[in-house]
Amino acid sequence: MDKIVIVGGRKLKGEVEISGAKNSALPIMAATLLAEEESIIENVPDLRDIHTMIRLLRALGAKAQYDNGRVVVRPGKNIKPIAPYKLVSTMRASVCVLGPLLARTGSAQVSLPGGCVIGPRPIDLHLKGLEGLGAEIDVQHGYVNAQAKKKLRGHDIYLGGSFGSSVLATDNVMMAAVLSQGTTQIESAACEPEVVDLARFLKKMGAKISGEGSPRIEIEGVKKLRGAHYAIIPDRIEAATYIFSAAMTAGDVLVKKMEPSHQNAVIDKLTLSGVRLQKSKNSIRVRRTGKLRPVDVTTLPYPGFPTDLQAQMMALMAVTPGISVITEKIYPDRFMHVSELNRMGSKIFIEGSSAIVHGVKHLSGAPVMASDLRASAALVIAGLVAEGTTEVHRVYHLDRGYEKLETKFTSLGASIHRERE
Ligand code: EPU
């Protein structure tokens, strides 16, 4: 297994280009199953999760390949609607083949994804939504068995849960509804840009959807969809991770090929903490010369502050003078990175679903263990400002979500490399 080795203390300077969004690409790749014809998806990042999705599409009987940022999928006529445990267990986003399989073939057998290190991750809202469209669902032996004895029918579906809206449940229901008979209204739909991206791809396939990006999405079912050619939006979480690293190292970085309008919550909090952010059409310049100031942050569904940036924000707070508070409203247990940051000298205390961060003057480089994708990113950016050497172990998590991470940081002047253990 590889580890990432970082020698901290360098200010980041220069330009970095953002890759396509993993969390858009995965559901869009699943959506290709809704047509027999070929779909081509561009700007797809070269990541482990993307290759897992390719393997899953092949297991379902589609022809799928990845080549230099482009995914080509030919589902053909004979889809096998069984998503095996071996693949689903390695990537939770596999669950988004459920809606397309059901809509396209009238049945789906998808392994239950289970929880993960960021906490319990139920799929009750996915199942409730699909049942609302007329599917019969039972869960046996670790598999969700969904059947549509008659054609799926449009329905009013409320998708609000105890933790707000659900991104992939909205995706699954939208993908099933596009081939249902009649009209579906999803209430309390997720408003994330990745949901909008999926809706745009589905519309290119011939779907009739309106209201995407708002809590009410309306879908008028159509009989058939065609293949489509589409380019994925830039990854807002990757972009913000580079923005945070520039802010932490008191650097001057132009983050390019990104969508500034997806970063309003981040811009708001970083501006309050003393970072200068200058928006242009597809880029943000990040500069910091003065001291960081403490802020309080609560994670919320979009357009709120993303849970997928909570760990990176905490790394920044760790070196911000004063006391900052971060409250996690999406995954109340998503604090695995705290003990690792504390091994680097931070002073972070957990109180229920909040972390109280007492800023320290210096972090000190240490060997640390990555627990999940975003926790790994937080440890890397903490390593960039720490004194001495930080070794981030279990980097396979990072390879699930950050394309060319070491190359991008190296081009900004960081001392970072990968070693085989
Ligand atoms: N929830 C339920 N029931 C459900 C579904 C979700 O109670 O049926 C709860 C979850 O437990 C959580 C909240 O609703 O408390 C929101 O979860 P959501 O369903 O929105 O998460 P997701 O769709 O499974 C996506 C991203 C995650 C990201 C979350 C929240 C993908 C592939 N994954 O997951 O990304 O954290 O939305 O924004 O899009 C990551 O990239 O590191 C990552 C974990």
Report on the architecture of this protein.
- The chain is of the alpha/beta class and 421 residues long.
- Helix content is 31%, strand content 25%.
- The strands form six sheets. It has a four-stranded mixed beta sheet, covered by helices on one side. It has a four-stranded mixed beta sheet with strand order 2-15-17-16.
- The longest helix is centred in the middle third of the chain and has 13 residues, at 236-248.
- It binds uridine-diphosphate-2(N-acetylglucosaminyl) butyric acid.
Describe the SSE topology.
Blueprint: E1 2-7, E2 13-17, H1 22-31, E3 39-42, H2 48-59, E4 63-67, E5 70-74, E6 82-83, H3 85-88, H4 98-105, E7 107-111, H5 124-132, E8 136-140, E9 143-147, E10 156-158, H6 167-177, E11 183-187, H7 193-204, E12 208-210, E13 216-220, E14 229-231, H8 236-248, E15 252-256, H9 264-272, E16 276-279, E17 284-287, E18 296-298, H10 310-318, E19 323-327, H11 336-343, E20 347-351, E21 354-358, E22 367-369, H12 373-385, E23 389-393, H13 396-399, H14 405-411, E24 415-420
Parallel strand pairs: 2-15, 3-14, 6-7, 10-11, 18-19, 22-23
Antiparallel strand pairs: 1-23, 1-24, 3-5, 4-5, 7-9, 8-9, 11-13, 12-13, 15-17, 16-17, 19-21, 20-21
Helix pairs in contact: 1-2, 1-7, 4-6, 5-6, 6-7, 8-10, 8-12, 10-12, 11-12
Bound molecules: uridine-diphosphate-2(N-acetylglucosaminyl) butyric acid.
